[in-house]
Amino acid sequence: MILPLHVEHLDVTLGGSRILRDVSVRVASGECVALLGANGSGKSTLVRAALGVVPASAGQVHLFGTPVARRRSVPWERVGYVPQRSTAVAGVPATVREVVTSGLLSARRIAPPRDARARVLAALERVGMAAHLRRPIAQLSGGQQQRVLIARALVREPEFLVLDEPLAGVDTDSQATFASTLRRLRRDGLTVLVVLHESGPLAPLLTRAVVLRHGAVVHDGPPPHPAPGHDEADHDHQHDHAEPDLAPAALALNPENLA
Ligand SMILES: Nc1ncnc2c1ncn2[C@@H]1O[C@H](COP(=O)(O)OP(=O)(O)OP(=O)(O)O)[C@@H](O)[C@H]1O
Q1: CATH topology for 5-221?
Q2: Is 127 exposed, middle or buried (0-12, 13-18, 19+ CB in 10 A)?
Q3: Where is this region: Disordered (predicted)?
């Protein structure tokens, strides 16, 4: 069976430090897997390595059976990526329509396809944001921005969606909206890998959780139950190693730059 994601014995070393240690993770078709762990445990690094953004020092990554050595080797027509909102939309002076249209562009396709308008609208309808088509993304709430970024990832109709901390800095109402969006996508048959600080309101949607600690997998199985009284709304840390805010031109031209 060809897996959407198959990571085998992956090691990643950055700045002389071993960040991931012998990590093996499988995501099968139709699963909704959470990647959990404390700050600095290596979750984002694993996602970035899976999308060819950071190189492996040992081990292998396959997406739909394709070996991933660099960003260009990712089968982007089958994989959607939703980056952390804080790094993706800060200061971008674009409308919702423009942001979602950028999901249809790439280094090889710098003009939108003929049916772009209909596809953009359909993607926004899937996340309940069609009414906001013409609004500047910077004017939207955090939760709404998050849904627009999901629409941008959905506009190519991927089979596998990777989301990096979609609940970070999002208020409780928007978290519930996000959970129902995710439930709908799962019903549509999407395979999902979602990086989370803790499983929280998404726990009922998860088929499995992989927990990282100090760059190694310490759990791969049923999702842990959310702690009583948990509140993720205040989890809005910034990454000291985060990519710089994307220039609008990069956002408009090449969604693969977001990975
Ligand atoms: N380019 C880099 N050079 C050196 N160290 C790095 C680099 N990128 C990440 N790291 C380090 O790797 C470790 C894991 O970082 P990573 O962002 O993958 O963790 P995380 O689990 O996603 O954390 P968070 O919850 O804060 O997003 C951290 O100690 C981080 O400082």
Answers
A1: Rossmann fold (3.40.50)
A2: buried
A3: 217-259
* Predicted ipTM of the assembly: 0.94
pLDDT in tens, 29-86: 999 999 999 999 999 999 999 999 999 999 999 999 999 988 888 998 899 998 886 6
Please, are residues 73 and 52 in contact by the beta-carbon 8 Å criterion?
Answer: yes
Phi-psi region of 224 (alpha: psi -120 to 50; beta: other; left: phi over 0): beta
Q: Is residue 84 lining ligand 1, measured as CB closer than 6 Å?
A: no
Ligand 1 centroid, distance to 130 Cα (angstroms): 35
Cα 245 from Cα 259, distance rounded (Å)? 13
Alpha helices in 129-199 (DSSP H): 142-154, 172-187
Ligand 1 atom 25, closest CA: 39
Mutate to test the pocket of ligand 1, among 7, 18, 19 (most ligand atoms within 8 A of CB): 19
Q: Tell me the whole-structure pTM to 2 decimals.
A: 0.83
Structure tokens at 14: 């950055």
